[in-house]
């Protein structure tokens, strides 16, 4: 509407940067929308290079329209931009992104370091920094006390997030039992999004209720999430797809080593300690696996748990290297300012 109507009424110099988080939710409509908004001209907007859906010639695709008419389009990580353009995660809009690739890019999201910062976090009992990880150990003790987990010389692995197919719920479930098999503890703070998943995990919660090495908390609790980030040794993010992901960024900030699947923004933020070829050893910060089967997850968990048990000093070094990264809004803010400067009316 801006470029077809309002620009003729004093808004000709307005520019638009359109940010897409998830290409799956596109917005589909028909001719009634054209008439309701005053755009009207059906034949004009049903042209393929405007609003017509790429695969259904009888509907309009509003996300496609946003891409076509915007001055610049971003998504929330560079790798997800590639996935949307070249792979399946464009959900049918890959050709449109290809046609407009000159104005399409990926900019990482950031996290608010006024909220997610172990040095000033009022939700955790012991504030800490990369220079004093002994305080992190005290948070681990506090987490165990709160959740009635046994104390002992074991690593504590966590999952925080939704429980659904996007988040790799089958791998989350497997990670619980594999952690126990590898003599580690597991804490889950998760919100099921479907009744069948809720039923599944409530069954697991009841089944594991008396196990002193595992706690499943179904729902969301802001305060508890901070304590888990502060107290856990590792955090898993086994997503099927993940446009950006904040969990791994928060984990890194709190010295909680991420174990992630190599998709979307996880690729741009977590660099495998053993196999990453793009960063020197001193800049690597976690563990990455790529397939969606149990063996891939187990391989990454094995390497992380093995390092914790057999090379504790090297594990602490890995924690510190993760804490050295800046995933605040500082760098993304600069990227967006550069985009705005590029597209503004001059």
UniProtKB/TrEMBL annotation:
Keywords: Glycogen biosynthesis, Glycosyltransferase, Transferase. It catalyses: [(1->4)-alpha-D-glucosyl](n) + ADP-alpha-D-glucose = [(1->4)-alpha-D-glucosyl](n+1) + ADP + H(+). One of its GO terms (molecular function) is alpha-1,4-glucan glucosyltransferase (UDP-glucose donor) activity. InterPro entries: Glyco_trans_1 (IPR001296), GS/SS (IPR011835), Starch_synth_cat_dom (IPR013534). GO terms for biological process: glycogen biosynthetic process. Residues 3-98 form the Starch synthase catalytic domain. Residues 152-305 form the Glycosyl transferase family domain. PANTHER family: GLYCOGEN SYNTHASE 2-RELATED, PTHR46083. Synthesizes alpha-1,4-glucan chains using ADP-glucose. This is starch synthase. It comes from Oscillatoriales cyanobacterium SpSt-402.
């Amino acid at each position: 509407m801006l470029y077809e109507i309002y620009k003729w009424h004093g808004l000709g110099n307005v520019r638009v940067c359109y940010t897409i988080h998830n290409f799956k939710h596109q917005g589909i409509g028909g001719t009634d929308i054209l008439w309701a908004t005053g755009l009207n001209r059906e034949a004009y907007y049903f042209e393929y290079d405007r609003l017509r859906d790429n695969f259904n010639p009888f509907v309009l695709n509003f996300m496609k329209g946003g891409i076509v008419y915007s001055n610049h389009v971003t998504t929330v990580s560079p790798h997800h931009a590639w996935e949307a353009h070249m792979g399946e995660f464009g959900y049918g809009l890959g050709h449109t992104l290809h046609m407009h690739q000159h104005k399409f890019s990926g900019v990482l999201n950031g996290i608010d370091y006024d909220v997610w910062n172990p040095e000033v976090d009022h939700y955790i009992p012991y504030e800490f920094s990369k220079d004093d990880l002994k305080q992190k150990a005290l948070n681990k003790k506090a987490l165990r006390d709160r959740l009635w987990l046994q104390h002992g010389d074991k690593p504590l692995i966590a999952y925080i997030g939704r429980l659904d197919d996007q988040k790799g719920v089958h791998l989350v479930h497997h990670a619980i039992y594999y952690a126990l098999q590898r003599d580690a503890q597991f804490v889950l703070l998760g919100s099921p999004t479907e009744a069948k998943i809720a039923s599944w995990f409530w069954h697991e919660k009841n089944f594991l209720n008396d196990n002193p090495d595992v706690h499943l908390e179904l729902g969301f609790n802001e305060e508890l999430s901070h304590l888990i980030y502060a107290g856990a040794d590792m955090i898993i993010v086994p997503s099927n797809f993940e446009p950006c992901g904040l969990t791994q960024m928060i984990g890194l900030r709190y010295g909680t080593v991420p174990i992630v699947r190599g998709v979307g923004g996880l690729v741009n933020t977590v660099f495998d300690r053993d196999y990453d070829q793009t960063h020197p050893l001193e800049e690597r910060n976690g563990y990455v696996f790529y397939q969606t089967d149990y063996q891939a997850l187990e391989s990454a968990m094995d390497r992380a748990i093995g390092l914790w048990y057999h090379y504790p000093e090297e594990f602490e070094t890995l924690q510190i290297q993760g804490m050295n990264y800046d995933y605040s809004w500082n760098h993304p803010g600069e990227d967006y300012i550069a985009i705005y400067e590029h597209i503004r009316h001059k």
